[in-house]
Design brief:
The chain has four helices and 20 strands. The protein has about 350 residues and is an alpha+beta fold. Among the domains are: about 110 residues, Immunoglobulin-like (Sandwich), CATH 2.60.40.640; about 120 residues, TATA-Binding Protein (2-Layer Sandwich), CATH 3.30.310. The strands form five sheets. Strands 14-15-16-17-18-20-19 form a seven-stranded antiparallel beta sheet. Strands 4, 7, 11, 12 and 13 form a five-stranded antiparallel beta sheet that branches. The chain has a four-stranded antiparallel beta sheet with strand order 1-2-3-8, with no helix packed on it. The radius of gyration is 25 Å and the shape is elongated. The termini are far apart.
Amino acid sequence: MVFKRLLGTFGVGGPKVDTVLSGSGTPGGTVQGDVHVQGGEAEFDIQQIVLELVATPQQLPGQQQGGGMGGGLGGMGGGMGGGAQGGKPVVFGRQVVAGGFRIAAGEKQVHPFSMPLPAETPFNELYGQHLGLELGVRTELAIAAAKDSGDMDPLTVSALPAQEVALEALGQLGFGFAQTVLLPGLVTGAQYQELPFHQELMLSAAPQYADQLQGLDLTLVAGPQGVDVVLEADKHLSGGVPMPFVRHTIPHAEVTSRDWQAEIDGWVQELLQQRQEFLNQMQMQMQMGGMQPGMHPGMQPGMHPDMQQQRRGGGAGMAVAAGAAGLGAGVLGGMMLNEAFSGDDEEDLADDGGDDE
């Protein structure tokens, strides 16, 4: 597909540039294509043609999930956006395609390119269906002191096999796709991350887990050896309190050799067990009066609320952070937990909150 733009910075009769992308890329792979330069009404000295990979991390108020959370991962069309607010575009890759050449009036030149994509590049296509996540390739043409970045050309990035198998397994388990967004900052529990943002996929709960959680927050961070799978439960209901997570890796070389549906189901159960232990510990400390405002399970007396600790073991982790507003001892803590969790945990914590009154 050809995307044309007139570089108005150079005035009427200036050169034109067309960027032609050849298909889609994959995380850690390349995107290929050609930059077509059409000479203007006069001769021009081209300093540089530069391509930039651009993404726009979003801000989600309360990280609320969007609509369209149907059963299974097949219904991917609905619920995109979900109140997400666009942020500032971020350049996460840059390559000089050509430079230091002259183009005559009316002359046509073609400059092919093969641009590497970082391993952590978000994917916005799964099994040929677009997920509503916008990425772009921006072309910059520099002539003398003038420069024009033009508009972005849409970039399609397909999921890696290890990412596909994780989503396929969750779909077979009954989890439903809600939306995917780019969020600024680091991934909770990821082994490696270089980009200043990450992709998060939001899934509705599978029927067999509907009494234990509303949804899963899934992050799939690709690396050289495999894909880190980070699972969190109902993060959008936590009120900003760091909650338990589990992290495991799907090796690229073992995508087809293991029963990932069974393994990932075990990871979900592991996550729910971690969360139950977290809630039990929190309830016990509240009952014993050992939790002060701004504290969380795992904090030692006298620890400054701004300090954070992470505990990991056996592929699982629990992020324990301090200073999250609104979670303290007594009734306030009990009320917040009642809103955040359902089932037996909710009833126990509600009773505890009533005793404090």
